[in-house]
Amino acid sequence: MSLTNTPGANRLHIALFGRRNSGKSSLINAITGQDIALVSEIAGTTTDPVYKAMELHPIGPVMFIDTAGFDDVGTLGELRIEKTRKAIEKTDVAIVFFSGTELSLEKEWTDELKKRKIPVIPVINKADILENTNDIKKQVEDTLGLMPIVISAKEKTGLDKVREELIRAVPEDFEVSSITAHLVNEGDLVLLVMPQDIQAPKGRLILPQVQIIRDLLDLKCMVMSITTDKLDSALKALANPPKLIITDSQVFDKVYAKKPEESLLTSFSVLFAEYKGDVSAYIKGAEAIDALTEKSAVLIAEACTHAPLSEDIGRVQLPRLLRQKAGEGLTVDIVSGADFPKDLSKYSLVIQCGCCMFNRKYVLSRIESANAQEVSICNYGIAIAKLKGILDKVAL
Predict the structure, then answer these.
(1) Proportion of the chain above pLDDT 90, given as a percent
(2) Is 124 helix (H, G, I), strand (E, B) or coil?
(3) Domain residue spans of the chain
């Protein structure tokens, strides 16, 4: 997978925060060498957060998030600020802009970023026109204990320093380097059992399948892909059992019943539990399934937004399995995309999908939110394995 077509969810998310007209958009244009963001002398030109995928050497694929000014005003301004706050949840590295000596807002936002353990790079832009750059710098140092980088996006000065700080700020756990390396070695045979149902667009594979195939090829494994109805024939055709079988969670039990004893079994969703989130937290969260009753409420959170499909995993299969376990009176609420309630107190359990469309930082922010509210959370693969009684038999 090349840098130009790396999925947005796998890119380092670099968000720019600051007051209106502090030079956020002009820095993106300067550091990428392209006119990506709209620049204007009129405050408030950037409204909703703008996401732009780029390659930033030597980091690689990144996603810049150009946000609205956090000093926006009026009813619409409040809505834009709220969207800027939501962008924090997806931020891996933050660049905070300082444009004056009054720093109450900057301190508020910087404190929030630090609270979430997001690296902060302080910047003073427009050094070519600001007359009090040194005063601003001293105030930032004295008030926040930060050493801001003074730049001029217009004159292209100080940009190398920003790039250097971005490189240093990349979190060590930004992305797990491999999805499957903990389960396989070079030369191992891996069998992928992939039901091609209506959830997979005709002629294409879904993103987790593509990424896992590429990961296995990078590890120099031998990969064999089949649909569920060809499992018996494939196993008979093999001279030796596969080291690992990866399947879709919805056919976990069917594949488990037929797999060779020596073959490990997991699912695409279970693998993404660690690649995109925290598998230990999910396994602990799945324990809540045993305590569900008809009076309980469960939230199912899908990353993708799509029209309901026949036998949809999140909208049909999971609710059915949960009600078979807890009773028909169980309340199941469903949200999709970036919709995720701030208040989770009504729920006994949150189950989110594999989250292949979200970056890891955002998924972890959801886990942190659930944990802070003492609400259990897991994902589709872990939940289905638990509901079908084979979680302890799944390779993690």
Answers:
(1) 72
(2) strand
(3) 8-169, 189-271, 277-393
Reported pTM:
0.77
Nearest to 151 by CA among 27, 262, 238, 44: 27
State how far the alpha carbon of 287 is from the alpha carbons of 5, 85, 249, 376, 380, in Å.
38, 32, 18, 8, 14
**How confident is the model over 12-30, as pLDDT tens digits?**
999 999 999 999 989 988 9
**CATH topology (fold) of 8-169:** Rossmann fold (3.40.50)
Contacts 24+ apart (CB under 8 A), 42-50: 43/69, 44/20, 44/68, 44/69, 44/72, 44/77, 45/21, 47/80, 48/80, 48/83, 49/15, 49/83, 49/84, 49/86, 49/87
Alpha helices in the chain (DSSP H): 24-32, 74-88, 104-115, 133-144, 159-169, 207-218, 231-237, 252-258, 268-275, 279-286, 318-326, 360-372, 380-387
C-alpha span between 19 and 8 (Å, rounded): 26
Q: What is the CATH number of domain 277-393?
A: 3.40.50.11410
pLDDT at 175: 62
| The CATH fold of domain 189-271 | Rossmann fold (3.40.50)
189-271 against 277-393: fold identical: yes
Cα 130–131–137 angle (5° rounding)? 75
Residues 6+ apart with CB under 8 A from 265: 244, 245, 247, 252, 255, 256, 259, 393, 394, 395
